[in-house]
Design brief:
heterodimer, A: 370 residues, alpha+beta, FAD/NAD(P)-binding domain, 8-stranded mixed beta sheet, 4-stranded antiparallel beta sheet, 8 helices, 17 strands, B: 466 residues, 5-stranded parallel beta sheet
Chain lengths: 370, 466
């Protein structure tokens, strides 16, 4: 039967696809199990940034992991292009985070100052208005300054998504849609996954199901304390190129359209579009770049990020069910390179490197101070 | 024009359903507003009924002038008419996002009646994006609103009543038609026969027969046409097709395509109203009850936007939705007689529709691989098939894989084709393949307009970043 695999990855989003692509090849039989057309899919709400600035306050290992992935991104883009012919349009022109008031600029500087004390493996510089205007001539009068990091970049995340799937299948991987996992049994050194399209058996199991991990992890003795955090994104029609650098919340795509986001809302599992939030996003975008006031918004949507309590990823192998791994994060694009080229080989080899130990979910077990 | 923040009743769309609904609501004393995208009331069917430059009643036919009565009644009803208004969102709380004169605003209503009408079914053939190829409906708009008739060799191709109606209107206006290429599957005639008795007793029969005869007398009609393609370098030069006599090539300057109309569902879908696949009309239709009410409290759908029934049926559906709205807001209002009259008339106009549905039901043949399906993002049928083969099960994953449906038209020009293509490729029903998930804005509005709307503190906090 073709339903036996060396590795079964649960979750066809960016995390699952990157791990499946990275783990496939070399004769390994890998399955990628996915839900249907209307799954929650955090991968549809990503902002396509390969981003390091500001990452890792409170957990230097996360800053290092992020920087490592960003450094591996050029090779990832080249490898995917070579295997699939899909140009993921990766670029690293350096990214900015704009401040629209002196207070915002001060808060940004203070935040980065605290981060600086951790000696992050990247440099961030504060820019005044004139320096910002040299990089971004289209800024409006409300922009007082920015932070700038030369290591920040972006890509076309739809092309990344497509390339990971195409590359995975080209390497012999099996993609199965409409195969939500209803139950997992671990017996005789293998995992048996119940799906409506039949049972899947695999020697190793990777849970990369985003918010679905909360339900799946306990089936293999793991915990995935994740919650949904809603983000809105607006997309404009195509406009003439005006923005040479991606911003944390606004970027111009290769097609010319402008992606604007992204809100952080605690709204449960509601993926509805909120006009007030869209208006707030639009208002900031127009203050940042007044020329955008005339651009038509052609799409908006909201989707759910996969957030942990501290915002950092969880990577862990089950002690109770060895061979079962958990991977979850909310930076599926930035971390795609680390997932595909560092984490996936470790999973395939059967053990996570000790340096990833800090990302165990056991860090959430510490009881809150009474 | 002063737009209020709130109304008793808000109607979207000034075609027959919307005009009839708004007229009744206003006559009953409800504070009523009707938002419409066009500069003049009438919708597509009665477009410019009050303002058309065409004077002779013969060109557009008697039906068209019936629209004048609806427009006149509406004008006298006291309802507020807001033309040039693009409704881009509707929330469950019945908050309507509308763009007017370059400014967006939010309007609330106790009752909302959507009368968004029909759009032409997409008709993707190789070369349909060439200059010189347009839809019959678009050509009819030019005729109605600007008295524009084509010069040169005009070919009409496809299926459905509008194709024949346009042909006659062109003939009356003095235009020449090189040929009508009829793609109606011959097997449809047999299937339609089962519904013939009702059709023979319906008001459509005599009208339809006269129309067909009038056109056939003066135009070459070629039946059983398949494999249509528009050819030309830079613009249309010829139409290629297959017929009984084999592959043919017909030189042409203008090709007008049409294969029926389908409900314009984007606003209703974005509002979160459930839709189902209608196998007889081959389209998605909203779930609603006999008075047009949907599962969303206070939101009803009337007219072709709820399923194709024609202009006269649409007006009666508009009246029934209005009666329900009036009763909800004015308990004790006695509208029994009006309701009975509307139901009776609706039944009369619905008689014979199943015959028309069966006769003009287009066969779905997956377009040739090189055919552009999504015009906004230039995605071809072959690319869609490849994505399906790679595991893409529905239109929403297809967006992520190919950008199909992500352009400004929001899937209006490709949605049904994509659903049917995926269904055919996967060997599942269109219902299982599903539809694009639609979200506001369903009509483009500028970022500046959106920025001008009230956001609130929670929203501002949600977008602030340190």
């Amino acid at each position: 039967m073709a339903d036996e695999f060396d590795i079964a990855v649960v979750g066809g989003g960016l995390v699952g696809a990157a791990l499946a692509w990275g783990a496939s090849g070399a004769g390994r039989r890998v399955a990628l199990l996915d839900e249907g057309d209307l799954a929650l899919r955090a991968a549809r709400a990503n902002f396509a940034l390969v981003w390091v600035q500001g990452k890792g306050l409170g957990l230097p290992d996360y800053a290092a992991w992020t920087a490592r992935s960003a450094a591996a991104w050029p090779d990832l883009a080249a490898a995917l292009g070579g295997e699939t012919g899909i140009d993921v349009r990766y670029g690293r022109p350096g990214g900015l985070h704009l401040a629209l008031s002196e207070a915002e600029l001060e808060r940004r500087a203070a935040w980065l100052g605290r981060l600086h004390n951790q000696s992050p493996p990247y440099t961030v510089r504060m820019l005044d208005r004139a320096e910002t205007a040299r990089l971004l001539p289209a800024i409006g009068p409300d922009v007082v300054g920015a932070s700038f990091c030369p290591d920040d970049g972006h890509c076309d995340s739809l092309r990344l998504f497509r390339a990971l799937h195409a590359g995975f299948q080209r390497r012999g991987g099996r993609y199965r849609a409409d195969s939500a996992v209803d139950g997992i049994r671990h017996a005789g050194g293998e995992f048996r996954l119940a799906t409506k399209r039949g049972e899947i058996r695999a020697a190793k199991l990777v849970l990369a199901a985003g918010l679905g991990n909360a339900r799946l992890a306990p089936m293999v003795g793991l915990a995935a304390p994740v919650r949904p955090q809603r983000g809105h994104i607006l997309v404009t029609e195509r406009v003439a190129p005006f923005l040479a650098h991606p911003l944390a919340t606004l970027r111009q795509t290769g097609e010319g359209s402008v992606m604007i986001g992204d809100s952080q809302e605690e709204a449960g599992f509601d993926t509805g579009v909120d006009t007030g939030v869209a208006a707030a996003i639009a208002a900031r975008a127009v203050r940042a770049f007044p020329l955008l006031a005339r651009a038509n918004v052609v799409r908006s949507w909201a989707a759910l990020r996969v957030m942990t309590g501290d915002g950092f990823p969880i990577y862990e192998q089950s002690a109770a069910c060895p061979g079962a791994f958990l991977a979850t994060c909310h930076s599926g694009v930035t971390l795609a390179a680390a997932h595909a080229t560092v984490l996936a080989p470790q999973i395939a080899a059967g053990a996570l490197a000790p340096e990833l130990g800090v990302f165990s979910a056991r860090r959430f077990d510490v009881p809150a101070a009474a | 024009m002063t737009i209020r923040d709130a109304y008793d009743a808000a109607v979207v769309g000034a075609g027959p359903a919307g005009l009839a609904a708004a007229t009744l609501c206003a006559r009953a004393g409800l504070a009523t507003v009707l938002f419409d995208e066009q500069p003049a009331a009438g919708g597509q069917i009665y477009r410019a009924a009050g303002t058309t430059p065409l004077r002779a009643g013969t060109i557009l036919g008697d039906d068209y002038w019936r629209g004048r009565r609806l427009v006149a009644d509406f004008a006298a009803s006291g309802a507020q008419h807001v033309p040039g208004a693009a409704v881009w969102s509707l929330s469950r709380e019945r908050e309507i996002g509308v763009s007017l004169g370059g400014a967006a605003r939010l309007v609330r209503a106790a009752r909302v009646i959507l009368a968004t009408g029909a759009i032409e079914r997409p008709f993707p053939i190789p070369g349909w994006t060439l200059p010189g190829v347009m839809t019959a409906g678009a050509a009819q708009i030019l005729l109605k609103s600007a008295a524009l008739v084509p010069a040169g060799r005009t070919v009409l191709a496809g299926s459905g009543p509008l194709l024949w109606l346009l042909a006659r209107q062109y003939l009356e206006a003095g235009a020449e038609i090189a040929a009508i290429l009829d793609t109606t599957p011959r097997a449809n005639r047999r299937r339609a026969l089962a519904h013939a008795p009702a059709f023979l007793a319906s008001p459509y029969f005599a009208k339809g027969l006269a129309l067909l005869r009038a056109v056939r007398r003066r135009v070459r009609v070629i039946g059983g046409v398949a494999a249509l393609a528009a050819e030309g370098s830079g613009r249309l030069e010829a139409v290629r097709y297959a017929a009984a006599r084999g592959e043919q090539r017909l030189p042409a300057d203008l090709l007008l395509l049409h294969q029926g109309v389908v409900p314009n569902v984007n606003l209703a879908m974005a509002a979160g109203i459930a839709h189902r696949w209608d196998e007889s009309q081959l389209c998605f239709v909203p779930e609603r009850d006999a008075a047009g009410a949907t599962a969303l409290d206070g939101i009803a759908i009337a007219g072709d936007g709820g399923g194709i029934g024609g202009a006269e049926a649409a007006a009666e559906e508009g009246r029934l939705a209005a009666i329900a709205a009036i009763r909800a807001l004015r308990p004790g209002a006695d509208l029994g007689a009006e309701e009975i009259a509307a139901r009776r008339s609706l039944a009369r106009w619905r008689r014979g529709r199943r015959f028309l549905d069966a006769l003009f039901r287009p066969a779905f043949v997956p377009p040739a691989d090189e055919t552009i399906v999504c015009r906004c993002e230039a995605v071809t049928a072959g690319e869609i098939a490849a994505a399906v083969d790679q595991g893409c099960t529905g239109p929403n994953q297809l967006k992520a894989f190919t950008r199909c449906g992500m352009g400004p038209c929001q899937g209006r020009l490709c949605g049904l084709t994509v659903t049917q293509l995926i269904a055919a490729r996967r060997g599942v029903s269109p219902a299982e393949a599903g539809h694009y998930r639609l979200r506001p804005p369903v009509k483009p509005l500028t970022l500046g307009e959106l920025a001008g709307l009230p956001a609130g503190n929670a929203a501002m906090k949600a977008v602030a970043r340190d």
